[in-house]
Amino acid sequence: MRAYYFDNVPGDQRLAHDSGNPVSLETLQSLGVLHWAIQLDEDGNWEVEINNVAKNRGYKNRDTINVTKEGLGDAYESKIKTFFEEHMHEDEEIRYILSGSGFFDVREHPHDKWIRIHVTPGDLLVIPPGIYHRFTLDEKNAIKALRLFQDEPKWTPHNRSEETDTNPYRVQYLKSIPAVSASA
Ligand code: KMT
Ligand code: NI
């Protein structure tokens, strides 16, 4: 995992867009974004560790998503588009990267800068309810991830809008983070 400020230069979303300014784990933590590095190995020991985290945090269910042209079929183009629309969820978005790579962009409150998080195999990322974020593949065009969830999966994205700004989960999220983030 590597995090940095997005450069905001227009162009292909799959390019790195690295401003050269790194973002620390502490800053991510202050935004409620959690990360664990859990080594993938052939023995499947990662599963033991994932099961542990899942147990501790109450993630009862899981499935696998394969974001490639082959994996998503006819839904590919539309999925790629929705993933990259700025949105929030009322549940955590939990992803353990099994293969490939991609970028999760999260908004840093209060100045609304994009933080780009490059994820690769072994990264476990938890995006909290209420944070505005988006996802894109990188230039390698493939990622496979385990999706964990507490109960029934509710993938509903709430795209950013004035209405979504008043969503109770959004309001609660803003209350839960420090008034001024560590890097401000
Ligand atoms: C999502 O909800 O944005 C995704 O599942 C993205 C692909 S998982 C790495
Ligand atoms: Ni999402």
Which characteristics define this entry?
12 strands; 184 residues; binds 4-(methylsulfanyl)-2-oxobutanoic acid; 6 helices; single chain; 5-stranded antiparallel sheet; binds nickel (II) ion; 24% helix; alpha+beta; Jelly Rolls
What does this entry look like structurally?
The strands form 3 sheets. A 5-stranded antiparallel beta sheet has the order 2-1-8-7-10. The chain has one domain (2-176): Jelly Rolls (Sandwich), CATH 2.60.120. The chain has 6 helices and 12 strands. The protein is an alpha+beta fold and 184 residues long. Helices cover 24% and strands 35% of the residues. The structure holds 4-(methylsulfanyl)-2-oxobutanoic acid and nickel (II) ion (NI). 4-(methylsulfanyl)-2-oxobutanoic acid binds at residues 65, 67, 83, 93, 95, 102, 135, 143, 145. Residues 65, 67, 83, 93, 95, 102, 135, 143, 145 line the site of 4-(methylsulfanyl)-2-oxobutanoic acid.
- Overall geometric form: globular
Pick out the low-confidence regions.
Answer: none
Radius of gyration: 16 Å
Largest sheet: 5 strands, antiparallel
Average per-residue pLDDT, rounded, comes to 94
Helical residue percent band: 10-25%
Please tell me the CATH architecture by its name. Sandwich
Number of strands: 12
In the sheet with the most strands, the strands line up as 2-1-8-7-10
Bound molecules: 4-(methylsulfanyl)-2-oxobutanoic acid, nickel (II) ion
Number of helices: 6
CATH superfamily: Jelly Rolls
Classified by CATH, the class is Mainly Beta
End-to-end Cα distance, whole Å, is: 22 Å
CATH topology: Jelly Rolls
| Secondary-structure-derived class | alpha+beta
| Beta-strand residue percentage | 25-35%
Q: How many structural domains in the coordinates? A: 1
Order of helices and strands: EEHEHEHHEEEEEEEEHH
